[in-house]
Amino acid sequence: MTALNVDTPAVPKRQPPRLMLAEPIMTMRGISKSFGDVKALGGVDVTVYPGEVLGIVGESGSGKSTLLRMMNLEDTPDTGSYNLVLPGHQDRNLFDLDRFERRMLRAHHIGIVYQNPHLGLLMNHTSSGNVAERLLIAGNRNFAELRERARQSLAASEFPTERMDATPCELSGGMQQRVQLAKAIALEPAVLLLDEPTTGLDVSVQALVLDTLKRLQRDRAITMVLVSHDLGVIRTMADRVMVMRRGLVVEQGLADQIFQDPQHAYTQQLVHAEL
Amino acid sequence: MKLQELTKPWAAFNYGFLDESAKRELRRRILKAIAIPGCQVPYASREVPMARGWGTGGLQVTLTLLKPASVVKVIDQGADDSVNASSIRKFFGRVGGVVETEDTGKATIVQSRHRIPEEKLREDQVLVLQVPNPEPLRPVQPDISIARDMHGDADYGQLWLVLYEQLVKSGRIMQGAEYPSLVNGRYVITPSPIPRWDVPKLNQADHLTILSAGREKRLYAVPPYTKVEPLVFDDVPYRVEDHHDKTCYRSNVTGYFVNELPQEDGSSAYELSDSHFGIKHIRKAEGEPVEIGDTWYKNGRMTDDRA
Q1: How far is CA B19 from CA B91, B94, B142, B215, in A?
Q2: What residue in A sits closest to B158 (Cα-Cα)?
Q3: Deepest in the core among A9, B70, B175, B185, taking most CB within 10 A?
Q4: Are strands B181-183 and B228-230 parallel, antiparallel or unpaired?
Q5: Which residue in chain A has the smallest CA separation from B152?
Q6: Where are the beta strands (DSSP E) in chain A?
Q7: What percentage of residues in chain A have a pLDDT greater than 70?
């Protein structure tokens, strides 16, 4: 009988968190942007993995919205590169795309919800029309199908579909955000960008919108980048957190790490201020 | 050599009213517009003895195309005898020495406001449409620079959205005139405020159509045998005005585009919008030897296979 090998096998190396195993879906490297003498972004790197929610937090003027505009290809940096893992766009710096390619990429693969619904919605068109616009840009030309897909998208955003033909002007702030959300997810985007989506809403409506976002993220595994100055929102939603200050990333890590054991003095200040 | 031999005798105005440099510029712009069907080409709209908004764009294009052998017809919403139409026609006769006509078949140049004649135009004829607002994107994008980018990107989603909203709110397309149409699969144009009835006449037509807006200083063209498709959803067909059963009370002709004339008793009478087309029918009925050309519509239905 062969003697048992009493040597204890090596303890398997601790696995990194599941999210880190996947190839990133979005990579930004060395993003810098100045507006005159003001340096809005000073060489920021961002990595986003499929299915995760990356929270970007920081004070006003820290550069988080500027960074989000870059992600939505609305603006170009002074330096830096941007890659999204999409068919036909591998290893391509998206900042090199021309205006038409950017528009098509935005229309098909990136969804965005703005803090101000006036930026994301056509206020004199119906809510279903706002969602349909995105489908129309993508080339859908069947009226019945447009209606049905708009209805489905609004329902997924927990918008009361009996009001789908009301204009956003006739809706509350929370409802307007749901229409924006429905518009953003209508084409199943690769990445959903959320720019302070609950700012300005009262706490109960805020909770409902966050619930909707969480459910969408759970059911559809949508990759999200959430920008907020509200740590409560970030704590509720984010898997990973990136803390920005004065155009730089001062700390990033898993949400629990950041909130329970902040390392950087600014992060500590933020967390303690929230508590 | 004397100075007199080198110069032309003094004249009150140049042939065709416009100076030669203006005509040269317009001809170049027209050629560019023909080369890129539906693309709006800017031009330096000149002052003409008529107020902006009364057809100065069409007037300048027609003046540029005039030659002594031209035969010109001018119509205003289908009528040859309106003050505007007859004044412009007389002006052409005076400054170009051209033959004036009211007969579509005899004209070499047809300048029109808001209508295309019912009789088919031929390859040797040019239709000049007066356009008040050449920009189809104006209702959805007031910024001209952004609208130009949208044309560059063929970004017409918002025009479709306008039609979507009309269907949602009214159950049908409410766009009575200026129906946005895709030319040659590339540029969307507003085909001037011609009714929906007339838009299919532009598709694969034998004639050249030039649309010119003097106030907006832009022109565009639909060359002969070019595809012109009104924007329509796959499941909502394009519909023209339902005039197939309307009979003109003057000419007793049925199945063409008519004007409605409300009567004192609350009923309506109808008369042909294309006035000279009606006159031809009346004369023919009275036994005159009148030649009536082939028409795009027959009994209110588009008959041309190409349309």
Answers
A1: 16, 16, 34, 19
A2: A133
A3: B70
A4: antiparallel
A5: A100
A6: 26-35, 38-48, 53-58, 79-84, 110-113, 191-195, 223-228, 240-245, 248-254
A7: 91
From B165, B234, B236, residue closest to A126, measured CB to CB:
B165
Q: Check CB contact under 8 Å for B153 and A99.
A: yes
3 state SS of A197: coil
Residue with tokens 């993508």: A138
pLDDT per residue as tens digits for the range B268-296:
999 999 999 999 999 999 999 999 999 99
ipTM: 0.86
The domain B20-227: what is its CATH number? Answer: 3.40.50.11310
- Whether B194 and B177 have beta carbons less than 8 Å apart is answered as yes
Secondary-structure percent of chain A, ordered helix, strand, coil, rounded to 5: 40, 20, 35
Model confidence pLDDT, tens digit, residues A7-32: 444 443 444 444 555 789 999 999 99
| Residue A42 main-chain phi, psi, to 5 deg | -120, 65
Q: What pTM was estimated for this model as a whole?
A: 0.87
Instruction: Tell whether the model's pLDDT for residue B304 goes beyond 90.
Output: no
The domain limits of chain B are 20-227
Cα-trace Rg, chain B: 20
> At residue B194, what is the residue type?
I
Residues of chain B in contact with residue A143, where contact means CB-CB under 8 angstroms, are 164, 167, 233-236
Mean pLDDT, residues A82-86 taken together? 90
Averaged confidence pLDDT in chain B: 94
**Tokens standing for A248?**
């730089």
H or E element, residue B279? helix B275-285
Asked whether the beta carbons of B209 and B202 are under 8 A apart, the reply is yes
For A127-177, write each residue's pLDDT tens digit: 999 999 999 988 899 999 999 999 999 999 989 999 999 999 999 998 999
